[in-house]
Design brief:
about 140 residues; mainly alpha; Sufe protein. Chain: A; three-stranded antiparallel sheet; 3 strands; about 45% helix; SufE family protein; Fe-S_metab-assoc_dom
Length: about 140
Amino acid sequence: MSIPSGLQEVIEDFEAVEGRDKLTLLLELSDELPELPDGMETADLERVPECQTPLFLTVDAADAEHVKLYFQAPPEAPTTRGFAAILHHGLDGESRETVLAVPEDFYATLGLADVVSPLRLRGLSAMLARIKRQVREAS
């Protein structure tokens, strides 16, 4: 598996906790999702309809060596925000090549299947798929 170091750190954090503590960690991560930069609006981002709550993202991959990720999700959607924070922490600043090499099912290593519904996990998978598509389109 080709996992960048930032994403590997997140995976190790989840591997270090059990059961409901994984959900607690996910909810804590939701607070770490950065706000959009000044001048960027939700209208500038792509909606991820597979997410149960409104989640928007965009990728700036103009610099092939330093991809930038931007997410917008409401504070009342901490699970979705947590997923976005995982991807932001794990992929923001990585190269296009590194982002594209992340396995689509990397999230299985987080061990969230017992505490989060499969529908929510599909939202995380959909976020990664959109990120990769936007990276490919920038190439």
